[in-house]
Amino acid sequence: MLHRIIAAAFLLAISRSALAAPDTQPATRPAADLPAASPSRVVAVTVYQDDALVTRQVQVKEGMGLMELVVRPLPPQTIDSSLYTEASDGIRVLTTRFRTQAVQQDTRAEVRGKEDQIHQLTARNTELSKQLEVAGQNVAMMAKLENFTSATLATLSEKGLLNAENTIKLATYVMETRGTLGKSQVQLQQEIEGNTQSIQFLERQMKELSAGADRTEREAVIVVDKANAAVGTVRLNYLVSSCTWHPQYKLRAGAEKEPVTVEYLAAIEQQSGEDWTGVDLVLSTAQPMLNAAPPVLLSLDVDVTALATRNFASQQNPQAVLNKLQNYEQAKQLRAQAQREMRDNNNDFAGNISLNSAAASEQYADLLAKEEPGEQAGPVREGPSVAYHLVDKLTVPSRADQQFVEIARIEFEPTYYYKTVPVLSQHVYRLADLTNKSKYVLLPGEATMYVGTDFVGRMTLPLVAIGEQFVAGFGVDPQIQVDRQLVAKNHAVQGGNQVQTFDYRIRVSSFKSSDVTLQVWDRLPHAETEAVAVELVKTTPEFSADGNYVRAERPKNLLRWDMPIKANTTNANAATIEYEFKLQYAKDVAIGNFKSTK
């Protein structure tokens, strides 16, 4: 009896010690054990160039006083420092915080479904492999039976005891059984291979999901003070990464008098891990800044370095002394770093240091940095901040490929003309002057060009402000042909100089049934110094009188003729341009290589 009492007391002490011992490993919580989430849905999204601001409407249950709202799941790409909540009538928001909790199963139904499928297929493959192993053993057994039968038949045949009917039955059984086993092996192998391919496909699908198999529950905890008893709502906002958009265009031209239709599209990349279903979508080129106060301007200190030391450092490491363009690029990187510190890490101090360092690099570039020959470096400035509020509610799921939405469809009245640069290409291109009379700023982006339903090529559309004119190209027109020839050249010495004279002819043939206007471009050598003199001797017809051309292009020895081309002007009737120029330089020097510059 005494032994039993001692044993019971010993077991009780062990059990109490086990209960009192702390759990050194954080236990994962099943999803079913998490506190109940408040009903919520995504109602609006603003997509920026690098991320997106998601607005989620959260329901507040009836009642009054302090309440804690739990909003889950937040997507894997949530920037935890970006959460803030907007109050509504009768509801005051006290705090908003972000937290994570480990769960035993992935919190997304799509990932859980794929995991279950992979598990089932893997288990099935294990079963099939076992069946295939048994089938192989059966085939081996049939081989032994066949060998035994052959030996037995030989012995019976020698003794004259062979029964033909039994022999045929046995041979038929062996062949049929072997055939059945072989067919079974093939079917099992094919099913295993099919299941393996399905598993690999499911694994690729899981990798394409933004965060893969996520076993972390992300949620927002909002504490509110409710002054009325009715059901209400608040709006939770948070930034998510892995989201961006960029403009794309489709321009469609028709006949000469028909308008050009511009389809202004947005290519959205959305891999936040959260689907946006039926939301108000805004596309913005602004930068989402969560800091409410301007940055602090720090003093700009200057020091000096011995010239010999500076030159030695430059020889040892060319990057030690940055040129103008490199300073601007460094400033761009520092500004991006400042934004990450302020927005993502909520670190205004570090962000302010980076901003001041970026400005210091730009000021050094302006005042002191070396400028490379032909370089036109300038600070990298942000483009215009525009926001497009799309009219319809849209659905943008989280997935790896681009998704396209239409921002607007615009019609422009075109002024068509043709352009050729025969020194570069013999093609003649159809162009249109268009004026942006819409209410949209057209951002830089790739455009695909069509004439009717025919694709004719691509071009890069520049930034086009409201009211600004721009040029759109609609491909090559084979009905107009151009040819450029060097007709004659001459070399002579006059006094102490060499003189070279060149005659060129450009012929334009048109097989079109209507008259067109054609711009023809060419160029003369352009001398930067007085060592070489370039002189235009004559031209027929005269150059273009366009004001922009005369001011900006003609001084660089770029030549432009605006020619009316009559219909069906070919062979002897082809339009002709003739010009002559000469080069003069000292007789003891030679012309070096030509090079193209901006």
Task: Indicate the percent of residues in helices.
Answer: 25-40%
Principal-axes shape call:
extended
**Biggest sheet: strands, sense, closure?**
7 strands, mixed
What's the N-to-C terminus distance?
Answer: 106 Å
What fraction of residues sit in β-strands?
25-35%
Determine the number of helices (DSSP H or I, runs of at least 4 residues).
Answer: 7
Which structural class matches the secondary elements?
Answer: alpha+beta
Describe this structure in words.
By secondary structure, the protein is α+β, with helices and mostly antiparallel strands. Among the domains are: 109-208; 247-367, no CATH class; 480-586, no CATH class. Helices cover 29% and strands 35% of the residues. It has seven helices and 24 strands. It has helices at 2-20, 109-159, 164-208, 307-316, 324-344, 348-367, 547-553; strands spanning 40-47, 52-60, 65-71, 84-86, 91-102, 216-226, 232-240, 243-253, 260-270, 276-284, 387-389, 394-396, 403-412, 415-420, 428-435, 445-451, 454-461, 469-476, 480-494, 497-510, 516-523, 532-540, 558-565, 575-586. Strands 1, 2, 4, 7, 10, 11 and 12 form a seven-stranded mixed beta sheet that branches. Strands 13-9-8-16-17 form a five-stranded mixed beta sheet, with no helix packed on it. A hairpin with a 7-residue loop joins β14 and β15 (428-435). α2 (109-159) runs antiparallel to α3 (164-208) and α5 runs antiparallel to α6 (348-367). The model is unreliable at 1-28 (pLDDT under 50).
How would you briefly describe this protein structure?
The chain has helices at residues 2-20, 109-159, 164-208, 307-316, 324-344, 348-367, 547-553; strands at 40-47, 52-60, 65-71, 84-86, 91-102, 216-226, 232-240, 243-253, 260-270, 276-284, 387-389, 394-396, 403-412, 415-420, 428-435, 445-451, 454-461, 469-476, 480-494, 497-510, 516-523, 532-540, 558-565, 575-586. It is of the alpha+beta class and 598 residues long. Among the domains are: 109-208; 247-367, no CATH class; 480-586, no CATH class.
